Amino acid sequence: MIDIVSLVYLMVCTPLICAVLLLIFKLIFKNIPDYINFAASTFLSLCSLSSSVLLFEYVITYQGYTLESNYPICVIQNIPLYFGIYADNLTSLFALLVGGFFLVANIFSYKYLRQNRQGFARFYIYLNLLQFFSFCFFLSSNLIQSVVFMMATSLACYLFANFYFQKPHAQNSSKKLFMADLTGDFILISASVAFLFFSTLVPDTANMPTLGFNNINSLGLYSFASLNPFMFAFICVLFVIGAIIKSSQFPFMSKITLCADAPNPAFSVILSPVVLAQGVFLLYRLYPLLNLAEGTFEIVKIIGIITAILACAIALRENSLKQFCSWMTISQVGIVMCTLGFKMYETSVFYLICSGLATTLICYSLDCVSYCSGSQENIRFLGGLREKSPFLAVSYILGALSLSGLLFSGFYPKTELINNLAVEKSSIYASLFLIILLMSTFYLFRVYFRVFEGGYRGSYEVQKTSKLMKFAILLLCIPVVFFGLIFAKYSGAFLSFSSLNKVSTPDFFVNVFAFIASIFGYYLAYNIYFTKRINSLRVRFLRRIATEHFWCDYFIDFLFEKLPLFVAKILLFFEKYLIGILYTLVKLKIKIISFVKEKLETNNINSEFFTLVLWMFLIALIFVILYFKTGVIN
Amino acid sequence: MGEILNIFILAILPLLAGILIFVGFFRNNTIVIRRFAKYFNIAYLVYALGFLINYNTNSELQYVVNLKNYNILFGFDVLGMILSTLVIFIVTICMIVAKSTLINKQKLFYSFALFFEASAVLLFCVQNLYLFCLALFFEIFCAYILISNFALPKGKITADRYAILNFSCSLASMGAMTLISAVLIKNSIYPNIQNLVQVSSELSSVVQFLAFFAIALLVFAKLPIFPFHKILQGTIEGLCAPLCFVFLTEFILGFFIFIKFNMYALNYVFGLIAPYLAIVAMVNVIYFAFLAIGSKDIKKSFAYFCFSQMLLSIPSLASINIDGVCGAIYQIISQSLILLGLFLCYCFVVQIFKTTKLPFMGGLASYAPKLAALTFVLTLAGANLPLTCGFVSRFLCILGGFSTEVYTQNTIWMCTLFIIPVFILGMIYVIKTFQNIFFGAGECSASKASDLLRHRWIALLIVGSLIIILGVFPYYLGEILSRYADMIVSMFSF
Q: In chain A, what residues touch B363 (CB-CB under 8 Å)?
């Protein structure tokens, strides 16, 4: 009988085994049939999911018991680095999500790739690698392992973004994406190493495993008590900055949109919480540490709310389906960050999972729309798809209702969040949240009315939706409908940090306001885009800056392209002219001396004597000039 | 085993092999010469590895040659042993690659490559100050011959400048060594490096300062800082793939001389100026990292990238602790391997495109997938991603920087924090270059692009594997380095 630890290791390694097998097959048999790739990958993904279900069941059954195992894989200067697993309630929940999302991606991708006829095996290899890295990240037992696998995830995202590497646009955007991702990773790794050093300064922490998550609380407390508070706060801020970059928050909002050149199913996986919210997950893990540094959560809160509002504003007028999906997801992650900033740990996790499920369902539905309409991404050339594919319309509506907090899973975390904000008496944030809710409902139904209602505006004949795709979407619909209810009922059992939660008693008026905000958003979208009784509000300035993505694209461009190039150009100028002149002077001097010597030797004159006379003449000349110019020589 | 592993033999072997080729023992048969040089070097590498493997059990690491009552002492420390093995490895890889690149004057190339190797190994193991200077001049001479004969037309111009700069700086350092020798002889002490370390604290501070700056001049000509970099940059621009051992050995030698003389022997001065050295080096690192991004010539930008990566070892050394010193040594080893791999890849790319200008490159991935895959691995190593040796070195550098105990701790901390932008700038450079060459619009469709030849593929595969092995299993190397670092750090008292 296999024990649970071995099962977890097997679960983690299954995607890697699959990727290696597919790679070997690809190298040995040049043209293996597509369905073999699909079948192998899907079967092994199903095995992973089953294992993650067993892990989840185990963790829920043995409440309060954390599964942990560590293998030292590398020792750097007597510092052992471990590869291990740390499975508490939160981890098992995310492992379950990873298994589920990747199974859906495997099933969904088959038909999509058949249509594109390019890189079938390559896609499945990348997908399995990404799954392996995600498993390793969520189950990691220590901080260093987390950051290392975050870097690996960045690499997998880059590979996907560069999937169609012949396209110059894909090349350019994947480059920026990788740079931005690695910047976040480097900041995180530097912060981790600094924390590793400072935490080992305290004698009490000497015997603790290297930055293990099981003792991050004690490490934080010891370090906080005995170290320079400024240094401690600085390290915490570095962690927050790294997480902000990784989770594509303001001002790095447009980072994730750079992935848009990836194949659609892969893009949906990247937008799902198992990849995009890795930065947020790291903050969950570091919660006890960050809690000690005053002010770090304030940064998280402010950045989160700014991101949520700006991303909503951009999504309001976005016409490209992929871009719309990415801005919608960023906005939801922004809300999650803001919630975490208020130290509402459980609400934040709850919101992240529910919104993640809904956004992924919407992404897949819209991917399917794009597939049916011949890769049409622009909503201006779509419409009337409800009649042609009613299944997609229903699935989209399910996701939209959940995300806008009107029904299904999304309703519960939204209610919890708005109540908690009311209890905190942070009226500004509560009102901002209501505005975000209104905007979210508006943009979700705007897209619905533009894509699924009215008449079809495209030229391509709409295809039938594939059964496999429908099945994949159906798999997602189930948790979107039921997860919230189950979580709300058994939240104590789901999260080990439930003591950190601040669940308040429901406030009737606050809930009514939230409901009205959502309904008002729907009402506006309905009247502007369906009945067309109201004209769309066009504030030119707002539209322009939303089109510019609030200059977030420029920011990334500036940071990784223009700024280094600008500084480099100045330095190159300096190098070329200043150093060039210096070297030219030396060269000139050598030339003059050799010229004079040559002349002297040909005329048979004593060269040393003549050089001496020349030098004396030169010095005399300088003195004469000085005398006439300044009059200082008497 | 101790009888077989003889330092004198190690130092003399490539010299003999070079002489064999040079005097025409193989009757100008280029194929035989090439194969002899290659297999000799592989065997020589195995022999050098024997020293490294038997280091713990075999203490026979000193050898004295008696020449008319004049004793010449040869001795290996851990650093010398590791770095000489590294140099031999680099030369071996270059000889494997040279097969289809160098067509003419093969006799001259292989003989002088072996002479160069011998002089470098001699520098690592010789303890006598006079012989050290002699080996230094011989090394410069060999490098000059190689550059002036085998570099591209662009590089041949810089050969003279290279020789002049290095000879001048070597003369300065020779002056310093003469001064030290005179002082030692005056005190009836035999002038060698071991004795210098033991009595360095008794030397007057003026002598120590003079010697320190004179030797630093040589170090900064080899491990260049502003404004000495211009000459080595020109040299790198002109070098072809099989000659890359010349500049890589220069970096390694520069670092070795710095750690051996400036840090270990003249520790009093180093302890005083360590923070200033760290600042100067860090400014240079950032300066070169920016220049690497800005330059549009692949080899020029690579040269700047080399300088920025190699100089990063100086701030790490300036932190004067075990982690920092180990990090610096690991940095030199890992970057030598990464730069070797990257330079070879870039040279092959230049051969395919027949230009060094980056804007005229692109879309090579479809035509040369093997080259693209290997360059991608090396690019990731250049960006210091985990599971590559670059990651380990950066990890140690940061750790060492934070755990410093020098008198101006905050300065070193600030320098350590500046490693983050260096990380990012280096990463920007390697990724941009890789993307520019291999992806995007197909500039290479016109030039008949071909993938890697078998021997090149093997050479790059060996380099890539070693980078990954050192990244995954850094323990063995780290363990022996930490003992050496401990020995160095114990010279300093805070």
A: 166
Mean pLDDT of chain B, nearest integer: 86
User: How many residues does the structure list for chain A?
Assistant: 634
CA distance B244 to B96: 12
- Which of B386, B424, B442 lies closest to A151 in CB terms? B386
C-alpha dihedral over B232, B234, B235, B239, to 10 degrees? 140
Average pLDDT over residues A219-223: 77
Dump pLDDT digits (tens) for B333-385: 999 999 999 999 999 999 888 888 988 888 888 888 889 999 999 999 999 88
| A chain contacts of residue B398, beta-carbon cutoff 8 Å | 190, 193-194
Which burial class, exposed, middle or buried, applies to B273 when counting CB atoms under 10 A from its CB (0-12, 13-18, 19+)? Answer: middle
Indicate the DSSP class of residue B357: B
Q: How far apart are CA A403 and CA A429, in angstroms?
A: 19
Mean per-residue pLDDT, B79-86:
91
Measured on CA atoms in the order A180, A185, A188, A189, is the torsion positive or negative? negative
User: Residue B386 corresponds to which tokens in the numbers above?
Assistant: 């985990």
Q: What is the mean pLDDT of residues A406-425?
A: 85
The region of weakest confidence among A451-455, B192-196, B468-472 is B192-196
Say yes or no: B489 contacts chain A, CB-CB below 8 A.
Answer: no
Phi, psi of B122 (to 5 degrees): -60, -40
Nearest to A186 among B294, B424, B439 (CB): B424
Could you write out the three-class secondary structure of A475-531? HHHHHHHHHHHHHHHCHHHHCCCHHHCCCCCCCHHHHHHHHHHHHHHHHHHHHHHHC
CB spacing of A564 vs B383 below 8 angstroms: no
Q: Distance between CA atoms of B144 and B124, rounded to whole angstroms?
A: 20
Whether the Cβ atoms of residue A202 and residue A222 lie closer than 8 Å to each other: yes
Query: pTM for the full model?
Result: 0.89
Token pair 């000659």: residue: B243
Sign of the dihedral defined by the CA atoms of residues B350, B354, B356, B357, in that order = negative
ipTM of the complex: 0.87
Structure tokens at B354: 């027949």
CB A481 within 8 A of CB A398: yes
- Residue B348 near residue B432, CB atoms below 8 Å: no
Do residues B294 and B454 touch, judged by C-beta distance below 8 A?
Answer: no
Q: Integer distance in angstroms from the first to the last C-alpha of chain B? A: 41
Residues 6+ apart with CB under 8 A from A344: A417, A420, A501, A502
Cβ separation of A175 and B432 shorter than 8 Å?
yes
For chain B, give every domain's residue range.
272-494
Return the amino acid letter for A364: Y
Asked whether the predicted pLDDT for residue B407 surpasses 80, the reply is: no
Alpha helices in A85-215 (DSSP H): 89-116, 120-138, 143-161, 168-200
Which one of A74, A172, A567 has the shortest CB-CB distance to B474?
A: A74
Which sign, positive or negative, has the C-alpha torsion B14, B20, B21, B26?
negative
Which of B163, B265, B143 lies closest to B214, judged by CA?
A: B265
The set of residues, in sequence order, having a beta carbon less than 8 Å from that of A425 and lying 6+ positions away, is: none
d(CA A363, CA A382): 16
Judged by CB atoms closer than 8 Å, whether chains meet at B326 and A569 is answered as: no
Question: Which residue of B399, B417, B418, B425 is the best one to mutate when testing the A interface, meaning the one whose CB has the most A CBs within 10 A?
Answer: B399
The answer to whether the CB atoms of B323 and A569 lie below 8 A apart is no
| Cα of A603 to nearest chain B Cα, Å | 29
Among candidates B417, B428, B475 on the partner chain, residue whose Cβ is nearest the Cβ of A179: B428
Give the pLDDT of residue A354. Answer: 92
Q: What are the Cα distances from residue B275, in Å, to A193, B54, B218, B320?
A: 21, 37, 20, 10
Q: Please tell me if residue B207 touches chain A, with a CB cutoff of 8 Å.
A: no
Pick B423's closest partner by Cβ from A79, A162, A186: A186
Structure token pair of residue A13: 């390694």
